[in-house]
Amino acid sequence: MKNILLIATGGTIASGYTREGLVPTIAAEELLGYVEGYREFCRVDVVQPFHLDSTNVCGRHWLQLAAAVEERYEEYDGFVICHGTDTMAFTAAALSYLIQNAAKPIVVTGAQKPIDLPVTDARTNLLDSLRFASDPRAHGVSIVFGGNVIAGTRAKKERSKSYNAFSSINFPSVAVIQDGRILFYIDDKDRVKGPVVFYHELNQRILLLKLVPGMDGGILGHLYPYYDGVIIESFGVGGLPEYGERPFQEEIRRWTDGGKMVLMATQVTHEGSDMEVYRVGKVIKENYKLMEAYDMTLEAAVTKAMWALGQTEDPDELRRLFYRTVNHDILLTPQQND
Questions:
Q1: Which positions are annotated as active-site residues?
Q2: Mean of the per-residue pLDDT values for the chain?
Q3: What is the pTM of this model?
């Protein structure tokens, strides 16, 4: 019988209806009352570090969740975090960087409808998560939702209402769960060597800037004092426009010469960036000290930038940390692309 810690944080799964809309109201202990079947395969304790709509969850909460796991890591065989869906992919990615090389599973789950409704996905998702966290093959950070197990760095919410809300981007699902049975597609726990590593610092001064046609590069100048890094969501495989009163190239030089992180990503969900393809990307990459997200999700790129900048300000070490694969987050690196 496995010992699992349920960490409840609020979200739709724990929400009730009010005149002002859904609000988290259901306590952690009450959640377990809706999934009595877990008693067949695990014993569960509960903690509730906060009770929030996930729109209000940010970096300090990610650190709080990582600390909750670290404090009890030796006491439990696995961890399940109940979380709102809106920022769930960010939280799962952030925890992948804050908790590395974990031989024990840290599962993030939630629901599109509250657990106390007659028709809901909440009870299935929670029971599946407890089951997966109890499986001896499970490890590391993942999202369990809609019968899919997705690596914590590869999840994206692609549907706002449907039960199959999350997809695994540019990477296969780790496993599927159906009728209480777990089928692993990626069974690689034997690759976990050495002790788990917990990190305690994030730099949240990261900007995600989505390009729109006609945007002037001067916007980066206005934002320069407020951020230590910028991720630019470009078009297609990646590049920067050459128009405007203040060109992007001029501002990129200012950011990189100032020791700030500049990371190019793409607005396209699948298949990633490749700035070497077109002149608008290739010239910029060759002439400026910027980085590229390649096949990473935006959620992973944002949280990995926060984590890496939280560990170092040295440009070379920053690149090394960012391009080191963590929890399947990046398949294509600069060395592989050469």
A1: 12
A2: 94
A3: 0.95
